[in-house]
Amino acid sequence: MLNPLIANVANPPAIVLGAIATLLIVLVTSVKGTGWEPTTDISEDVLEHRASAVPETEFPEPGNRAVGGGGGGGGAIPAGGAEGEEGELEEGGTAGSGPGDIPEDEVEYFEVEFVKQGETVELSNDQPILEQGEDEGWDLPYACRQGQCVSCAGQITDGPSEDFVEHDNQQMLEEAEIDDGYTLTCVAYPRDSFSIETGEAP
Ligand code: FES
After folding, report:
1. For the domain bounded by 104-198, which CATH number is listed?
2. What Pfam families does UniProt report for this protein, alphabetically (predicted)?
3. pTM as predicted
4. What residues line ligand 1, using a CB cutoff of 6 Å?
């Protein structure tokens, strides 16, 4: 007769098998996952909800920032003051900061003879000679267009150039050269009628 104790001793393999099976199931489940899948990505919904909860602003975003910012330091200045001052400055600036800033109803025209081109045209007093010559379709010389070289120089043959044009911050011509009629056409605004030879530098 088999002693129960012995039978128990004989049974362990079954218990072990059971335990192994359980372990396997646990292992398989953990490797495969539980089968639970997150439903959908709710971040979109959350964002949409938040967006709809924020009231619409009156500000056109980029433009508003550009105007209010006004460059790097603009953001640090209180918005109201900065915008007001800036607006005033801009208006004030365009009204009288350069020889070309002439109100439309005060623009005058002068007869200007371009000797080398063999033509006389009417130039307004609110645009540089170079620009208006180019508008005529002439290939006039230039480089910086800021009065800082002499590439665009021309010679007014009627006398000192500043009797006939106003320079906007020309930095190259000396007094004597101006007296000789030289002008930098990129920054020279007509103030009278005259004859000019383009492409003539001192
Ligand atoms: S293009 Fe340089 S001064 Fe006119």
Report:
1. 3.10.20.30
2. Fer2
3. 0.55
4. 142-145, 147-149, 151-152, 184, 186
